[in-house]
Amino acid sequence: SVSAYKKLAITNQDRTNIPTMTMMTMTAARLRISVFPLLLLIVHAATDTAIMPPSFPAHWGSPPVRQTRDFVQLPGDYGRGSGTVRRWILEKMAEDDAAALNDASSVGHRHATADDGMLWPDKDLVGMAGEDAKAAVLAGDMALMAAHVHIMHKDDMVTMDYREERVRIFVDDDGKVVRQPTKG
């Protein structure tokens, strides 16, 4: 009705003093729609965990504020982000591994870094499980992406082209590394 519209008509000066919810209600009233579906949409978008990447562990602190403008695959299930965040995640994972190494409950668990602190390619990975070797390769070279580190059977056929961003890890039937992984 005309009287309802006049009640909703306000000046721009008054509009700045009205809270957002009131503005949303007034806009919905003008368009003759309910505000409730809009609120559900806002709440769903803010809490939908399928859309949001998993959060970092609290003991890691905040990720770096200054980041590079590249877009790389992040380790774990953290999705994609900058190379700076990737490096930060790998450092935090290495710190967690080092802390777990000191923990008595982690005896027998293989880590990406050795007790002497050596990293791949200096560290010998022969005899290590394939997945552990992959973690060691990724921890040793921050520029590598997980998608370019391949675990392959020692008898698999491969192309002979050389790619600086690729590492092949050859394993035996038991899943143990049979020769030192190299780039290419």
Would you give an account of this structure?
The chain has six helices and five strands. A hairpin with a 6-residue loop joins strand 1 and strand 2. The chain is mainly alpha-helical. 14% of the residues are buried. Strands 3-4-5 form a three-stranded mixed beta sheet, with helices on one face. It has a two-stranded antiparallel ribbon with strand order 1-2.
Describe this protein with a few key phrases:
184 residues, two-stranded antiparallel ribbon, disordered N terminus, single chain, 9% strand, mainly alpha, globular
Helix/strand-derived category reads mainly alpha
Tally of DSSP helical segments: 6
Mean pLDDT: 74
- C-alpha termini separation: 74 Å
Spatial strand arrangement across the major sheet: 3-4-5
Measured by DSSP, the beta-strand proportion falls in 5-15%
Short description, anyone?
With 184 residues, the protein is mainly α. Helices cover 36% and strands 9% of the residues.
Task: Lay out the secondary structure.
Blueprint: H1 2-8, H2 12-15, H3 20-31, H4 36-47, E1 72-73, E2 80-81, H5 83-102, H6 130-140, E3 149-153, E4 167-171, E5 182-183
Parallel strand pairs: 3-4
Antiparallel strand pairs: 1-2, 4-5
